[in-house]
């Protein structure tokens, strides 16, 4: 029988009088921890290095919010393309739901930034003070010069990590070049406004990183993170979760080395699973909202089982169906097909839209002051502002033409419009209509835009009106 689920606040962190204690997990090695550490540091390295990657001479991932141009590996998105970002977010959410249904909170334990940075900051404490027992003792020690020095060293390293994190994060938005230039502006009077915003953002993100990873830590997962709260509704009997084999382990109890008493289960009550837990809980109390499924307790307990000569897996990744009902878990269940179908449709839709997308945009706005006017030659004139945006990664020259229509002609200030990569340009254009030829009222007109190499074409419709003179 498995232990009941529990939502209680872990007892290791809170005294009866409500005093909270800092969790100092013991660092453990093992199969899952090796995977976890490699995954976490690979993701961390990707986060730190990606802004420095160049693609066609431009920052490969640059979310240039001030100019509303978003560059992702050769593709330029504008605010009008926001539906792509929404689609990516929906795909990411469904992928996360699907993974959660199968592998539980694998995101929390292996890939969540809160977990990665907390691990990093705790590693700094371990490096400066020592492993768990030394850190607990250090907290209780009276203030001394050594304690002040070690605390200062830890805070300083945390600060450096926080600044590196924040500058990297901001560089995805400001661009690495602007960040570098703003750094060079330090000491300049007056300090430019754009550089001020960059550094204000850096300090806000650095502060958040410092507080989250240095102080909030597991409280963020237990008290604040909404994903941790609602993921339990996505679990079913076949979801893989880290579980304690209650039937095998109980009754728990210490024993002499080499002995195997009949009245005790396999849990030797060494508490190693509790000591390694980054959220300070006891997995033997059952599935808890504070468990981020990092599997540190699995590795710790397996290590103990090896030492006492018992089979591994007293704490393991398993499903409720396997553990409690002694049945085989089902992988291909209706939910699987539902998520798979939905993800396939969404991914297919986005890929199709990306493939079909022309990296050239035209927008036509009418002159709102006057619908139409008569010029000296007696022709009816309609004025528009045509906005062209080059969404490619290269400079192009574009030509605007009017789709042939009897009685209508286009007048434009420039025959060729050269645009740099990502550049937009507003251009006044006029369409003239011969009152003897065109019909009274509104006539649809189409403007065509083509690049000089013939690779890109777009068209947009508007109306020519004879009213309002
Ligand atoms: S590590 Fe294993 S043996 Fe030790 S207390 Fe935890 S469950 Fe029991
Ligand atoms: S109970 Fe185990 S899996 Fe859950 S957070 Fe603690 S160490 Fe990680």
UniProtKB/TrEMBL annotation:
It comes from Psychrobacter glacincola. Keywords: 4Fe-4S, Electron transport, Iron, Iron-sulfur, Membrane, Metal-binding, Transmembrane, Transmembrane helix, Transport. Residues 257-286 form the 4Fe-4S ferredoxin-type domain. The chain crosses the membrane at residues 35-53, 82-103, 152-174, 194-213, 336-354. InterPro entries: 4Fe4S_Fe-S-bd, 4Fe4S_Fe_S_CS, Cyt_c_oxidase_cbb3_FixG, Electron_Trans/Redox, FixG_C, Ig-like_fold. This is Cytochrome c oxidase accessory protein CcoG. The lineage of its organism: Bacteria, Pseudomonadati, Pseudomonadota, Gammaproteobacteria, Moraxellales. SUPFAM superfamilies: 4Fe-4S ferredoxins.
């Amino acid at each position: 029988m498995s232990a009941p689920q529990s939502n209680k606040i872990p007892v290791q962190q809170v005294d009866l009088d409500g005093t909270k204690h800092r969790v100092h997990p013991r660092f453990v090695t093992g199969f899952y921890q090796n995977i976890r550490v490699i995954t976490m540091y690979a993701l961390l390295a990707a986060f730190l290095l990606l802004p420095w990657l160049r693609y066609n001479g431009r920052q490969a991932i640059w979310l240039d919010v001030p100019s509303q141009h978003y560059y992702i590996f050769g593709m330029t998105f504008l605010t009008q393309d926001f539906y792509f970002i929404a689609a990516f977010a929906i795909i990411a959410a469904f992928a996360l739901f699907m993974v959660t249904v199968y592998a539980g909170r694998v995101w929390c334990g292996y890939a969540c930034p809160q977990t990665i940075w907390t691990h990093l900051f705790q590693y700094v404490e371990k490096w400066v003070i020592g492993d768990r027992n030394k850190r607990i003792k250090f907290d209780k020690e009276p203030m001394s010069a050594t304690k002040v020095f070690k605390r200062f060293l830890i805070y300083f390293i945390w600060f450096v990590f926080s600044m590196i994190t924040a500058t990297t994060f901001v560089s995805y938005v400001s661009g690495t070049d602007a960040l570098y230039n703003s750094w060079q502006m330090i000491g300049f009077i007056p300090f430019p406004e754009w550089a001020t915003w960059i550094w204000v953002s850096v300090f806000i993100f650095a502060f958040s990183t410092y507080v989250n990873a240095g102080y909030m830590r597991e409280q963020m997962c237990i008290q604040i993170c909404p994903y941790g709260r609602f993921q339990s509704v996505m679990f079913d009997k076949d979801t893989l979760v880290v579980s304690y084999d209650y039937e095998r382990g109980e009754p728990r109890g210490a024993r002499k080395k080499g002995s195997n008493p009949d009245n005790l289960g396999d849990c030797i009550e060494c508490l190693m699973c509790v000591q390694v837990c980054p959220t300070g809980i006891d997995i033997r109390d059952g599935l808890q909202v504070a468990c981020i499924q990092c599997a540190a307790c699995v590795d710790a307990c397996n290590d103990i089982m090896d030492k006492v000569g018992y089979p591994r897996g007293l704490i393991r990744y398993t499903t409720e169906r396997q553990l409690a009902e002694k049945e085989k878990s089902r992988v291909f269940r209706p939910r699987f097909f539902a998520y798979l179908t939905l993800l396939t449709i969404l991914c297919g839709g986005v890929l199709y839209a990306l493939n079909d997308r022309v990296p050239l945009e035209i927008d036509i706005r009418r002159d709102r002051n006057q619908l139409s006017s008569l010029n000296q030659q007696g022709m009816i004139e309609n004025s528009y502002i045509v906005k062209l945006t080059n969404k490619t990664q290269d400079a192009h020259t574009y030509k605007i033409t009017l789709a042939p229509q009897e009685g209508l002609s286009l007048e434009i200030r420039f025959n060729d419009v050269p645009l740099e990569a990502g550049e937009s340009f507003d251009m006044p254009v006029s369409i003239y209509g011969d009152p003897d030829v065109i019909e009274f009222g509104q006539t649809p007109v189409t403007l065509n835009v083509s690049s000089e190499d013939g690779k890109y074409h777009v068209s947009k419709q508007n109306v020519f009106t004879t009213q309002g003179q």
